[in-house]
């Protein structure tokens, strides 16, 4: 998850100590043995061809993810062996109907849904369309998605932030406020704590999202979000994903919006694209997918926003196989639904990628 302090850019950046950049042969082997058919019926080996996928990019900044973190990555087989969603025991905290012999998440938890909950205001023309976020999430995971009622934020006279729960109970969130600029940030742990109390009985996971800025620790400029897999909750902010906003690399409270720098249609496209990418990346973590080191992939880690914005909208073959094993979807049908979404939202580059991918694997 992007988490920013001051960045600097230099030439020839080394990987984090201990990280071993996988070669193509190693990345291909991470896809797993395609002759071993899983129990769900939609598995077709050629859908996981690595053709057209590039290896993960080398770091170009000291703040890039792989320049900071020694990621080990999970192969497909390691994921299958360790992911608790495949267990014949009910996941902790889940209260819904459980079928231990089910081959996929929705076979094990037939009532299961992904829940999304907006936090605070989402001004028209300055934030992503919530119904479009729900639609993309549904197409990406091939899982029922439901949007909960908005959790409102109120501000006290002494600049404290109050979360108003659906039962009208008011909770003070931990936050910080800058008097001169009027900027504020919510502490991410404080929000996660309250979201845990709101998980519906039929939820596989619950994701809160907001246009308010977030932080984790005092030195942070910001943090885009955080997901807690064990508790099945996550929260993230679209505040700095706004293409009209520029911000300081020194002070968290210095954000400037240039409302005339980008056309309305282009703003809508970029804002939705970035928000959808962040949304499904975080939800994937809640379903057990870690950061990908095998190919260029939507599950690659990001050390800062510039790196985040350059990442693709698609799962590499390793992570596609992981997700398909979890949800049992038909890969081509899923691609077609995603392609229609990209076409309807004028995301031409992504639509073209989908079309080319379908040709390659069919």
From TrEMBL:
Q: What is an annotated GO biological process for this record, any one?
A: proteolysis
Q: Which GO terms describe its molecular function?
A: metal ion binding; metallopeptidase activity
The coenzyme or cofactor needed here is: Zn(2+)
InterPro entries documented for this protein: MetalloPept_cat_dom_sf (IPR024079), Pept_M54_archaemetzincn (IPR012962)
Q: Keywords assigned by UniProt?
A: Hydrolase, Metal-binding, Metalloprotease, Protease, Zinc
Q: What is this protein called?
A: Archaemetzincin-2-like isoform X1
Source organism per UniProt: Oopsacas minuta
